[in-house]
Design brief:
By secondary structure, the chain is of the alpha/beta class. Helices cover 18% and strands 31% of the residues. The chain has a single domain (3-9, 19-94), classed as Conserved hypothetical protein from pyrococcus furiosus pfu- 392566-001, ParB domain (Alpha-Beta Complex), CATH 3.90.1530.
Length: 98
């Protein structure tokens, strides 16, 4: 299995970070794919297979750490592309919620 679990919603409280600029203060770090729970179940293959899928967004995935779990909030395309390339980690900005 690529991810720890597949979720369909955000189980954590709203954190107020919306834009790439909001997330920019968090330094990226490596996260293992098998430690992540996704917060959505669907992905557009056109986005996944696009050469410039990260051109207009953050180069790093956005992960929320809450109650001992890591939730992949943004960057599902990057994570799946990494898995397809036989990589087990991605670089992500991690927001720690109390």
């Amino acid at each position: 299995m690529i991810f720890k679990a597949i979720g369909d919603s955000k189980p954590y409280p709203d954190h107020g970070l919306v834009t790439t600029r909001d997330w920019a203060h968090l330094p990226p770090r490596q996260i293992r794919l098998d430690q992540l729970t996704t917060v959505r179940t669907e992905l557009d293959l056109r986005v996944l297979l696009s050469e410039d899928s990260t051109f207009y967004g953050d180069l790093f995935a956005h992960v929320v750490a809450w109650q001992g779990e890591l939730y992949l909030e943004d960057g599902l395309q990057r994570a799946l592309r990494s898995a397809l390339q036989q990589r087990t980690t991605i670089h992500a900005r991690v927001l720690e919620l109390g």
